[in-house]
């Protein structure tokens, strides 16, 4: 029963993991780790509470564990296919998406977490604060600082383009 409920959350889990890692393979690994932890520790889930918050908290903690184990940060490289459509509208939209991905990747881990939960997955402030185990006011201020940093980074990138 719990396994099928968790399985129904897979698209949201993957989207949240992708918003944290920005690498498909890392996101898949993170979701797999979260699934293993959730199924292996299913007795820790309290029926009647939000399953998605419990799962997102597992993903968040798994990502923090991963970040701590890495010796250095991954660098964001544009895929080879990024230059295939130079000169058309697709290329411009693709460049904007890459710029946003790069800007988000430059955020601190705690800012990426709030952006991933609130702006990417669409959780409400209270639910996101519950997932992160922080007060709503702290989440609100982190989100405001993250948005400010994103705007500044994107503005700087726009100015740097020829």
UniProtKB/TrEMBL annotation:
Keywords: DNA-directed RNA polymerase, Sigma factor, Transcription, Transcription regulation
Domain (RNA polymerase sigma-70 region): residue spans on this chain: 7-73
Domain RNA polymerase sigma factor 70 region 4 type: 98-150
GO CC entries: DNA-directed RNA polymerase complex
Transmembrane segments: none
Pfam families: Sigma70_r2, Sigma70_r4_2
CDD domains per the UniProt record, alphabetical: Sigma70_r4 (cd06171)
Coiled-coil ranges (or none): none
NCBIfam families: sigma70-ECF
Family membership noted in the UniProt record: Belongs to the sigma-70 factor family. ECF subfamily.
Protein name: DNA-directed RNA polymerase sigma-70 factor
């Amino acid at each position: 029963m719990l396994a099928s409920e968790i399985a129904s959350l897979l698209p949201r889990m993957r989207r949240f993991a992708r918003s944290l890692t920005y690498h498909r393979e890392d996101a898949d690994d993170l979701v797999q780790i979260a699934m293993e932890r959730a199924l292996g520790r299913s007795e820790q889930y309290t029926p009647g509470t939000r399953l998605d918050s419990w799962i997102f908290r597992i993903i968040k903690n798994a990502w923090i564990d991963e970040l701590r184990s890495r010796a250095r940060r991954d660098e964001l490289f544009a895929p080879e296919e990024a230059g295939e459509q130079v000169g058309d509208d697709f290329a411009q939209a693709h460049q904007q998406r890459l710029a946003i991905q790069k800007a988000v990747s430059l955020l601190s881990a705690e800012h990426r977490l709030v952006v991933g939960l609130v702006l990417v997955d669409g959780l409400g402030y209270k639910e996101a604060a519950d997932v992160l185990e922080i007060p709503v006011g702290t989440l609100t201020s982190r989100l405001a600082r993250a948005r400010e940093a994103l705007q500044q980074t994107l503005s700087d990138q726009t100015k740097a383009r020829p």
